[in-house]
From TrEMBL:
GO cellular component: plasma membrane
Domain Cytochrome oxidase subunit I profile: 13-467
Protein name per the record: cytochrome-c oxidase
Lineage: Bacteria, Pseudomonadati, Pseudomonadota, Gammaproteobacteria, Vibrionales
Transmembrane segments: 12-38, 58-78, 90-113, 125-147, 159-177, 197-222, 234-251, 263-281, 302-319, 339-363, 383-408, 428-450
Superkingdom as given in the UniProt entry: Bacteria
Organism: Photobacterium aphoticum
Cofactors demanded by this protein: Cu(2+); heme; heme b
Length: 467
């Protein structure tokens, strides 16, 4: 693979940064899981306690792992599918280093306790301003590249990338409108129910357009490439796009069921969540059928199996999400470990497996390597990842459902049957299994990093085969 006329070096940097942040973010997650079972691991430190590390975990995974891989792959796919060079190479490097600076500031500020306390939006106002500046530069770079394309058609992956760039920009700015009190401290311009509605408009759509739409765009390019088959139905991919864009942004208020938010606003979130079943599963069917067009390769190629597993977990997560939006299920699950299990079945199963598959397929080709150093290690990684996700998710489903029932259980005179401590004791062994599951998943990442390192160090060169 030659660099000319495409800008490949900056793509390499984004992909390596994504891999590094995936390990850092998920390792912190394992530490947090250990702290929940062994509270003494907080070490009585204000800097190493759960409340300080948890936003660092989510920021590392979402903004480190996911945003880096989406930025890198989007710039690569835009060049390849538009058959043109990047709009501006210097701008690409400004985006890369600007984003890494943001992540470094998060690593410093969050453990020190500088936080807005808003989910997935904890960073304080000076860093927010820097995020907006870098994001605008990224948008200029991406859309500028599309504008100078040498082909008339815009490939569907670029549609999803465009949606993720535009929607994230819009909802990030609106949710982070705040009044600075002093350096590294601000207060939201919203209050009460208003603040909750805007926050979950952001929170749910950060999941919807970073972890869903962006990753879907990435997979619409790499799944056909890895399977060596065209997209099963290009028309269905367009329906998938408009279905997500049309309904996803309305679903955030399902986080606010049984709250002081008006019931009709809650109902919009419930209805839109249920409607999302259709485009989500339609898109999953499209990707699965793309892989199944090459059944022979699917049976033996663990990269394709990672992609296929990601699709299965996507179906599971997009079935469970609308289910939890139904009032009866929400009554049991709300604020319980069930929701955490749901989030991680999607984050580890859908996003994690997709990212792993792209790392395995894309990194060797970026460095002109013919094949992975060890097929046995990728096989071990595949089963470790599955074992980790299943242990993690199933443990928290059991813990959450039991926890929810214990919170609601009442005696004949209306008293609560179980105390808070009894509910904690019930879920303790399941929290231990959660830790084990997370540790297995991170162990798989270590195997992947070693395998990829040995692959890049190998002398074997890829001959006449580009990504």
């Amino acid at each position: 693979m030659t660099d000319a006329p495409y800008s490949i070096k900056v793509v390499k940097y984004f992909i390596v940064a994504s891999l590094v942040w995936a390990f850092i973010g998920m390792l912190i997650g394992v530490i947090l899981a250990a702290q929940l079972y062994w509270p003494s691991l907080n070490f009585d430190s204000e800097y190493f306690q759960f409340g300080r590390l948890r936003p660092l975990h989510t920021s590392g995974v979402i903004y480190g792992f996911v945003v880096n891989i989406l930025m890198g792959t989007s710039l690569y796919i835009a060049q390849r599918s538009c058959q043109c060079a990047l709009y501006n190479r210097s701008l690409a490097w400004m985006v890369f280093w600007g984003w890494q600076l943001i992540l470094l500031l998060a690593v410093i500020s969050l453990p020190l306790g500088y936080t807005t306390s808003k989910e997935y939006a904890e960073l304080e106002w000076p860093i927010d301003i820097l995020i907006v500046v870098v994001w605008v530069l990224y948008a200029v770079l991406f859309f500028g590249t599309l504008a100078q394309r040498t082909v008339k058609h815009i490939f569907v992956a670029n549609w999803f990338y465009a949606a993720f760039i535009i929607v994230i920009a819009m909802i990030f700015v609106v949710n982070n409108l705040e009044l600075p009190a002093y350096f590294m401290k601000s207060y939201s311009v919203y209050a009460g129910a208003q603040d909750a509605i805007v926050q979950w408009w952001w929170g749910h759509n950060a999941v919807g357009f970073l972890l869903t739409a962006g990753v879907i765009g990435m997979n619409y390019y790499f799944i056909p490439k890895a399977a060596e088959r065209p997209i099963y139905s290009y028309r269905l991919s367009i329906i998938h796009f408009w279905g997500l864009v049309g309904f996803y942004t309305w679903a955030g208020t399902h986080h606010l069921i049984y709250s002081s938010v008006p019931v009709w606003v809650q109902n919009i979130g419930i209805v839109m969540s249920l409607i999302l079943w259709l485009p989500s599963w339609g898109g999953a069917f499209n990707s699965a059928m793309t892989l199944l067009q090459n059944k022979t390769k699917l049976k033996n190629d663990y990269i394709l199996l990672f992609f296929f597993s990601a699709i299965i977990y996507y179906c599971l997560a997009t079935f469970e999400g609308p289910l939890l939006a139904i009032r009866w299920f929400n009554m049991i699950a709300h604020n319980s470990e069930w929701v955490i299990g749901h989030v991680h079945s999607g984050a580890l199963g859908w996003v994690g497996m997709s990212g792993i598959a792209v790392f395995y397929w894309f990194i060797p080709r970026l460095w002109n390597k013919e094949q992975l150093w060890s097929q046995r290690l990728i096989k071990w990684h595949f089963w470790l990842a599955h074992a980790g996700i299943l242990l993690y998710a199933v443990a928290l489903w059991i813990a959450g459902i039991g926890e929810g029932y214990m919170w609601l259980a009442q005696s004949d005179n209306g008293q609560l049957i179980y105390s808070f401590v009894e509910a904690m004791n019930f879920k303790a062994p399941w929290l231990f299994l959660r830790f084990v599951g997370g540790a297995l998943f991170v162990l798989g990442l270590v195997l992947m990093a070693f395998n990829l390192y040995k692959t890049l160090r190998s002398p074997v060169i890829l001959v006449a085969k580009e990504a």
